[in-house]
């Protein structure tokens, strides 16, 4: 994999990765309704070339129109891959309307190409109120990245009320590959895209990605990150959005992050990973605030979240996830959970709610209704494999294990500390080994 684990980093650095001042493009068509271009591929490519030549502009697309692209326009972008329209090198807005789409033709014999590439010296592409469909980035290098859009270093893509769907990348970023640029997604959908390797929906490689009031759903990755992938030093802020029902053959059905992840009032639900992290794999700093990680499935560890760096969860729910170990959360580094709920998660062997191998802290949190299901399984609520788990003002109740440690199981040599915490009504017992967890009875 290209992803390298990273811990630390200041949030403020996100603003310094690429220039954040938007460029205002002069409109080529100030009278929107009377200046919409004709509904054909030639008119679209001519308008983009004209706008590039004039230093940018707004192109009004025809309503109820499918701009069908049947041929490669160029291979001149830095990616080296074929593009369906001229490379965007100036600030250009494509404004659609009801029923407007830009598509690679599905006619047999149509060559494979992505739709857009955004490049120097001043590429800033805004897509507004339209659908981009059926792009195919073909290749084993950068030419195989970004099925719909490839964003080069220092360049920007802004999506407003846009749907990116049924695009394919042979390598990374089924819909979008962001190569050290900036991508802003507002009130949009990134769904049903496919990456041969990583990032079924979006691959964010050392860039800044902002997703607001949008969905990244039903995408698929042949390796990791069914919905979204963040490389080392990349940033993602996800606000009032969903990453749902994505799938990865390898790790991270929903989000694979080795960068800096900020999830606010969003949900990562019903994703599937063949290996680790059904909902999320966090190898970098991650903050989940007022979010949900619900109904995800992993083939091995971390049905909801597989954490190996620094994870903070507040006012959130990690519910009804499943895995072999750590149905809710599988932690091998540092996790803090506050005023949250770990409920109804399932592990086949160890740690229905939480499996800890380093430092785990839960404060004012409910760990309830979790269970293990396999023969000899332990730690329905919490399984502390090594390191320390500290539970403060927390309830561990109504969890179940097949063999022992219905509430908490502490591996000898590790330590679980209860501070004003109730462990009760777990089956077949509350804590095991007997007497190992101070303050736990039964």
What does this structure look like?
This protein has 442 residues and is mainly β. The protein has a domain at 316-442. It is built from 1 helix and 48 strands. The protein has an 18-stranded parallel sheet that branches. A 13-stranded parallel sheet has the order 5-8-11-15-19-22-26-30-34-38-42-45-48, with no helix packed on it. A 7-stranded parallel sheet has the order 7-10-14-18-21-25-29, with no helix packed on it. It is elongated. 64% of the residues are buried.
Based on helices, strands and strand pairing, what is the structural class? mainly beta
Number of helices: 1
**Quaternary structure annotation:** single chain
DSSP strand count: 48
* Low-confidence region ranges: 1-31
Q: How much strand content do the residues show?
A: 35-45%
Average pLDDT, rounded to a whole number, is 93
| Rg calc | 24 Å
First CA to last CA: what distance? 46 Å
What gross morphology would you assign? Answer: elongated
Fraction in helix: under 10%
Reported for the largest beta sheet, the result is: 18 strands, parallel
């Amino acid at each position: 994999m290209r992803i390298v684990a990273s811990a630390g980093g200041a949030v403020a650095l996100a603003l310094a990765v690429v220039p954040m001042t938007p460029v205002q493009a002069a409109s080529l068509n100030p009278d929107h309704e009377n200046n919409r271009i004709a509904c054909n591929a030639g008119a679209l490519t001519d308008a983009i070339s004209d706008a590039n030549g004039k230093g940018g502009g707004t192109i009004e697309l025809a309503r109820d129109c499918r701009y069908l692209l049947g041929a490669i326009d160029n291979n001149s972008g830095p990616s080296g891959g074929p593009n369906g329209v001229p490379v965007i090198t100036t600030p250009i807005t494509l404004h659609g309307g009801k029923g407007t789409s830009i598509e690679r033709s599905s006619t047999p014999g149509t060559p494979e190409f992505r739709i857009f590439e955004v490049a120097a010296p001043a590429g800033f592409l805004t897509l507004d109120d339209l659908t981009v469909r059926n792009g195919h980035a073909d290749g084993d290098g950068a030419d195989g990245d970004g099925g719909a859009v490839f964003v080069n270093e220092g360049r920007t893509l802004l999506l407003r009320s846009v749907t990116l769907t049924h695009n394919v990348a042979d390598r990374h970023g089924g819909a979008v590959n962001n190569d050290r640029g900036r991508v802003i997604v507002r009130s949009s959908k990134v769904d049903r895209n496919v990456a041969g390797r990583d990032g079924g929906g979006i691959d964010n490689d050392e860039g800044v990605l902002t997703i607001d009031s949008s969905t990244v759903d039903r995408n698929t990755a042949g390796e990791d990150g069914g919905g979204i992938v963040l490389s080392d030093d990349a940033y993602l802020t996800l606000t009032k959005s969903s990453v749902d029902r994505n799938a990865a053959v390898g790790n991270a059905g929903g989000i694979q992050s080795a960068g800096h992840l900020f999830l606010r009032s969003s949900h990562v639900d019903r994703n599937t990973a063949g290996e680790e992290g059904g909902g999320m794999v966090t190898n970098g700093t991650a903050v989940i605030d007022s979010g949900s990680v619900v109904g995800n499935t992993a083939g091995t560890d971390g049905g909801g979240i597989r954490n190996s760096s620094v994870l903070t969860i507040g006012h959130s729910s990690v519910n009804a996830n499943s895995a072999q170990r750590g149905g809710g959360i599988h932690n091998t580094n540092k996790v803090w959970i506050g005023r949250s709920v770990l409920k109804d998660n399932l592990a086949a062997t160890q740690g229905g709610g939480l499996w800890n191998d380093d430092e785990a802290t839960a404060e004012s949190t409910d760990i309830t209704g979790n269970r293990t299901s396999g023969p000899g399984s332990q730690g329905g609520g919490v399984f502390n494999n090594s390191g320390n788990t500290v539970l403060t003002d927390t309830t561990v109740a109504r969890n179940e294990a097949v063999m022992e440690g219905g509430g908490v199981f502490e591996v000898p040599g590790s330590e679980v500390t209860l501070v004003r915490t109730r462990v009760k009504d777990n089956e077949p017992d509350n804590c095991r080994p007997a007497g190992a967890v101070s303050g736990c009875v039964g």
